[in-house]
Amino acid sequence: MHIALLAGEASGDQLGAELIKALRKRNPCIRFDGVGGEKMQAQGFNSLIPMEEFSVMGISEVLWRLPKLLRYRNQLIEQYQSSLPNAFIGIDSPDFNLRLAGRLREIGIYTAQYVSPSVWAWRENRIETIKRSCDLMLTLFEFEKQFYDKHQMPAVYCGHPLVDLIPAELNPAKAKARLQHEPGRPYLAVLPGSRQSEVRKMLPVFIQTARYLQKKLPNLVLQVPVVNQEIRALATKLFAQQGSGLTFELIDGDAKQVMLACDSVLLASGTATLEAMLLQKPMVVAYKVSRVTATIAKRLVNVTHFSLPNLLADHPVVPEFIQDAINPHEMAHELYQQITDASHRNALVARLVQIRRKVRGHAAENAAKAVYQDMMRKELMG
């Protein structure tokens, strides 16, 4: 059996690796190829194109990479027209994956999408494209399945793999010792994103926020996990240009341990906000895209929150700052409260613990079961 997968960024690579392991439990003879990163490749996955080529975000950011992305899409279509895999599973990266899935489904290949696009939040009219492109949608959250049920699109609520990777019982002291934290000194985890485009936009904002915070906490230490050497080089450059006087450490990988050890987290919106929630860490979330992307999105977005903890709670729990509302001074104030006010911090953590109960575990196993059974059922039906 041959299953093609495409993950376009670090979080998708992690999801893909767990999915490969779960599918192999059902059928050890499955051969996997497509696009994936180091974690998927460690599971025996054959990546035909470097995953980093797909790591772009936002409308204007995609436009200048469009010719290359189209060439890659055509390359994959030709590849799979020839090899005819039993299934194609897109992992996140919906703008690329759904178009590719649609073309592959036209030639009779079973297609599924693991991680729903935010169709419930903006561009709801995409549901018709999704229904044409996919046999099955595998969602991470229950509210997403409810949206697809409303639109008569086959979907399975799988849960999120991070629930299994991050235990409910945590050991911050062990993480602090591992990262050699000095007792009594404040530490702030800073996660500006996993893509270079995100880091260029968000890290300068976070550096400015840290400068304000340092005025109130002079012995503040920033710990910044970096996903690869390119991000490390970019972060080093930005700190050199804008972070004079700040005490910071760049740490290869280990984002979960860094967040667990630190007193609070300053991060870009995305999967990392769910990690921080599961780690029961106070946080401030911000996000910024290009002016073109923001202008278009403003007309199409129909949700009042954008970070996962607030979406799951369906009301504000963690502070959010987006686009023109980004205010480093206010962000620093929120972080100062989280770090120094125990009652404020404890109340926030208690709410995060409640939200965790809304997310199902065993996601990879649930996704593998759903897609494998649905694929085999449709093959038997012809």
UniProtKB/TrEMBL annotation:
Q: Which GO terms describe its cellular component?
A: membrane
Keyword Lipid metabolism tagged: yes
Q: Which reaction does it catalyse?
A: a lipid X + a UDP-2-N,3-O-bis[(3R)-3-hydroxyacyl]-alpha-D-glucosamine = a lipid A disaccharide + UDP + H(+)
Instruction: Give, as in the UniProt entry, the pathway in which the protein acts.
Output: Bacterial outer membrane biogenesis; LPS lipid A biosynthesis
| SUPFAM superfamilies in the cross-refs | UDP-Glycosyltransferase/glycogen phosphorylase
Q: Which GO terms describe its biological process?
A: lipid A biosynthetic process
What InterPro entries does the record tag this protein with?
Glyco_trans_19
Q: What class of enzyme is it?
A: transferase
| Keyword field | Glycosyltransferase, Lipid A biosynthesis, Lipid biosynthesis, Lipid metabolism, Transferase
One example GO MF annotation: lipid-A-disaccharide synthase activity
What CDD domains would the database entry show? Glycosyltransferase_GTB-type
- So which residues are the signal peptide here? none
Instruction: Family membership, please give it.
Output: Belongs to the LpxB family.
Q: Output the PANTHER family linked to this UniProt entry.
A: LIPID-A-DISACCHARIDE SYNTHASE (PTHR30372), LIPID-A-DISACCHARIDE SYNTHASE, MITOCHONDRIAL-RELATED (PTHR30372:SF4)
Q: Which function does this protein serve?
A: Condensation of UDP-2,3-diacylglucosamine and 2,3-diacylglucosamine-1-phosphate to form lipid A disaccharide, a precursor of lipid A, a phosphorylated glycolipid that anchors the lipopolysaccharide to the outer membrane of the cell.
Question: Would you tell me the protein name for this molecule?
Answer: Lipid-A-disaccharide synthase
Q: What is the lineage of its organism?
A: Bacteria, Pseudomonadati, Pseudomonadota, Gammaproteobacteria, Cardiobacteriales
